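Input chain follows. Return structure tokens only.
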Amino acid sequence: MLQEFDVKYVTLYDGTGHRLGPAECTLTSTRLIISDARGGIHQILLRDISGITTPSKIGAPKMLRVSLPGLSYDIDCSSKGQKMDIEAWLVRAIRGSVS
């Protein structure tokens, strides 16, 4: 399984609120890889994800929060449809990685 998608920006919450800017994301069977415009690469192991939520359904309906122990990533999608697709891909990938 390989899914690739571009997002407006990703915000990393690790105590600093670091904003990564436009990003290209790749979802494999074991990890979510975020490549930001500044050349940074973040690899998230699917088994480490503790939750997938929408931070604010009214204020940020196109945003998806991926939570890990001690930090989280807010992924700002281009549309609600893209957010729903990414959420569904992540849920399926996480289920597959746990099996």
